[in-house]
Structure formats: C-alpha cells, structure tokens
From TrEMBL:
InterPro entries in UniProt: Polyketide_cyclase/dehydratase, START-like_dom_sf
Coiled-coil ranges from the UniProt annotation: none
Pfam families listed in its UniProt record: Polyketide_cyc2
Listed CDD domains: SRPBCC
Listed Low complexity bias regions: 151-168
Protein name per Swiss-Prot or TrEMBL: SRPBCC family protein
Length: 179
C-alpha cells in the first residue's frame, strides 16, 4: 500500500524510537499505557499538538465520538488548505479512524498493549481505490511516470523524509511519555 505523505519527523529526546514499517502502516513502541495514548489520538482537537500539518481543528460537538465532524486548517510549508473530516471508527484504546472530506482517505490509528505495559501504535492511511487509480493513470501519462507502481514513489513518501507519516508517531510518543 502506498502511504500518503502526512507528517515530518519530531522527537524531543533525539533518541531513535523503535519503529517498523508493516503492510498495515508504520508502528512505534510507546512507553505509556494505551489509555494515555488513546487520549492523544482519539480527540480530534489534539491533532495540532502532534501533527506537523494540522494547525487548527474545530469540532462540531463535545468530546470526540463516533460521527464527530470537524473543520481543519492544515499547512505544509507555505501552503495552507482546509479540510473536513468525520470520525468513522471509535473503539476506545484500540482503534480510531477519521475520513477526510473531498478525497475520502481514512487516517487510522491502532493501539495494542505491549507486555511491558506500553503501547504499540500503528498509523496508516487508506485512500479510496478510485483515487489511487486516478493517481496511477495521471503519473503513467507523465514523462518518466510509472503509473504509481511500487518503487516509483517520490522521496516525500520515504521513511526518512520530512513528509513521512512517522513524524506524527514520534510526536505522539514524546507527548505520551511526558506524563
């Protein structure tokens, strides 16, 4: 699965965190219980604390729950853009998913307790099949395009890139381990 660029790297202790790429996304071990990690990832208003793109999140109701809608202001470099989203999966301390308006990509966080009392947090995105097909068609039509096949992703989607989704995981880890 091709990951959609989302975040930049961030770690307050500058110690590399154990992180792995899996077919289901990117994961990180956090030295905090699932309840603490859940507090951070399941409240949509917290996204600006750990996302390098989300600048402001305005939710339509009280605490985040299944069906909560939000209006978001995002930024990457000099570019700002608005999005909307809706919580489509809300399983306390297990799974949280937000579907963005417009293109319909789902951003998913899955939490698993570790034997040490910590949490393995996995982040992934699932773009709709129609979006993936359109991007493949467009890139194959460009000079040098490969149709979005595996191995043709730009450097912005590699794990060491500032746009790698793992940046959010590092920020969540730092925040969860502070308390």
């Amino acid at each position: 699965m091709t990951q959609t660029p989302m975040e930049g790297p961030m770690s307050t202790d500058h110690t590399p965190a154990p992180e792995t790429g899996t077919p289901r996304g990117r994961s990180i071990e956090i030295d905090a219980p699932p309840a603490r990690v859940w507090e951070l990832v399941s409240e949509v208003r917290n996204a600006p604390r750990w996302s390098t793109q989300a600048r402001k999140v305005l939710a339509t109701s009280g605490p985040t729950a299944l069906g909560t809608r939000s209006f978001n202001i995002n930024r990457q470099g000099p570019v700002f853009w608005p999005t909307t989203s809706r919580v489509v999966d809300f399983q306390p301390e297990r799974r949280f998913a937000n579907r963005t308006g417009g293109h319909g990509t789902q951003w998913i966080f899955e939490l698993e307790p570790t034997p040490s009392g910590g949490t393995r947090l996995t982040e992934r995105s699932e773009p709709p099949a129609a979006l993936v097909a359109a991007v493949r068609k467009l890139t194959s039509a460009l000079p040098g395009g490969r149709g979005g096949t595996r191995g043709s992703s730009s450097s912005s989607s590699t794990p060491s890139s500032p746009s790698s989704p793992s940046g959010s995981l590092h920020r969540i880890k730092a925040l969860a381990e502070q308390s």
